[in-house]
Specification:
homodimer; 5 strands; DNA-binding
Chain lengths: 133, 133
DNA sequence: TCTATTGCGTTACATTATAACGTAAACTAC
DNA sequence: GTAGTTTACGTTATAATGTAACGCAATAGA
């Protein structure tokens, strides 16, 4: 096990954790440039891919962005609630929903490998604020 | 009501329908170049956005691609099953699953506006084929 | 130490998507 | 029908996202 890549991975993860919201790979890149002025996209993407493998980071497909995993139990299929106001991303495990989904797809003969469940809307914090724009 | 944009929209939709699978905007562009040699990305994206508004086309977020809607009833929230072997995309309406999801999110105070439910895997056709690679 | 492996830095490029602007088509009113 | 308005088009340019490929350097194992 090489520990070589893990320095960069922990830096990337730290950046993502500092924000509660999803960041694009290039947002992460910009943050890391302070410490590593010559860093380039492949380095960031390599770290992100490794972190996704490990489950420490999730890709938000509908934003082309990345977010630190903050679910206590590392589920492999979860619901992501994305607030279009403030950008926050919440994770929810919902085993019954997954069972339900598996049932529906099972009937069609589809063999599911990966689930992307992303819900866009307004989080409770933003929703309860006065909408005095 | 201008009918002006609809010519291009119907061309784009025709291309997407000819394939059962998801196409990138640039795949569509290449197809249309036969008929419109000078067509450029904004034209295709404009048509795609209009078609998505109308419900004739869905965006596949996890592929950055587009697919013609083939569900009989135009549901506004559906499950897309994406075969990673052959690229085919199936739509399934699942009202109970949506209710289930709404229930889970309702408890968290999240107000859902748009659902992205995409399942990657292997379709029944590809799954039943001999895997003599 | 020697060697194999792995991931890094770097350059370059591929892919996906949009901004901005002038123009032409279609619609509206007269 | 013609003037004014709107709308989408074509065009150019560029932004944003993501990867291929290569040589090198660090680590691991013998």
């Amino acid at each position: 096990m090489s520990t070589r890549g893990e320095i960069m991975q922990s830096k990337v993860l730290a950046v993502l954790k500092r924000e509660g919201s999803a960041l694009s790979a290039y947002d992460v890149l910009d943050q890391l440039r302070h410490e590593y002025p010559k860093i380039a996209p492949p380095t960031v993407y390599r770290a992100l891919h490794a972190l996704i493998e490990k489950g420490g980071v999730h890709r938000v497909e509908s934003l082309n962005a990345f977010v630190a995993c903050n679910s206590t139990s590392h589920e492999h299929a979860l619901i992501m609630s994305i607030c279009d106001d403030c950008g926050s991303v919440e994770e929810n495990a919902a085993p019954e929903l997954m069972d339900n989904l598996a049932g529906i797809l099972g009937k069609t003969g589809f063999d599911a490998h990966r689930h992307v469940i992303e819900v866009h809307g307004v989080c409770s914090t933003c929703g309860s604020e006065d909408s005095t724009s």
